[in-house]
Amino acid sequence: MRHITRPVARELTGLALALTLAPTASAALAAPAYAGTGEHAAHMGAHHMIRYVSVKGCADKSYGQVPCGHWRLDLIDGTHVSLDDALVHSRDAKGRTEAGATAPVTVSGDGESVAYFRRKDGRVVVREFHGPVHVMPADALPKGVAIDRAALQLSLDGGRLAVMYSDKKGGEHARVFAVSDPGNPATISGYEQFEGFSGDGSAVLVRDRTDDNTDELVAYDASGRELGRVVPPQVVSNNSPRALSADGRTVAVVTGSAGKPVLKLYDMVADRVVGSVPYTGRGGSLPDMADWTGDHQVTVHVNGEGASGARVTILEIDTRTGATRVRDSYKVRSDAYVYASCGGG
């Protein structure tokens, strides 16, 4: 999932971490009626889950507006908590704080985990909202690489973490960690865009450029072993977002217009489009995030700007019929400097 931290304007039980997780009432966010089905719907209603993370913006003479305060987790039941131990401001190669830039943060698709750089020591951590904190190795971000050149992404269930970074020559790299046992990460290098994890987190999809200057899609398993490499047709390469199925070969991509969106299914191994499903769009624009959330389900995020700020609509699409239901819809806090939504979970 591309858990993009979007500009709006332009150990849970470990006391030593000095983390405040104090639920407070949030009048601006009413609890939605979850539109999922079956076992997953029951899971969603079982307890608090993260809807999105944001940080407040404050006026600044030099930058106009800068992030301030702490990262905040807004929950699906309308409450929120403060993520006090997460680094808010990014840092350059010399460790200097960048007042106008936020440090990376990401939420897993199931809304159960959040990953960030820890404020006190710069370590990358994954915090299970109802479980332990997992601290990544000290070199999760290699020595000499600044936080302002890094990004984070969790798999749908929060079980894997990608720490992505650019080197001094502009090369892109990703280190993929098993969150519960992060000692031996896989390293994937030599691509242009990290597209995201497969639906079950067992693989990742990246986009690269060939010597002929055409787009190329490459799938790797979680150990870094290449599963497939293909130059897709233009209907796939020229559209986004793209998401890799748990089968490691089927890519879903949204095409068409905001009024008539179509979900295309592309088989990387057969090198052909194997499905084309029109669906009902919402929110007045095409989605910018997509995830496989079942064998026959893709979940997309549509992000639009209303009169009073950003609004997110999350749709579940049946890949066989195009039947679409709204899983959630919410308005982002009006004072948010940036925000990052949960994924498709």
From TrEMBL:
It comes from the Bacteria. Keywords: Signal. It comes from Microbispora corallina. This is Uncharacterized protein. Residues 1-30 form the signal peptide. InterPro entries: 6-blade_b-propeller_TolB-like.
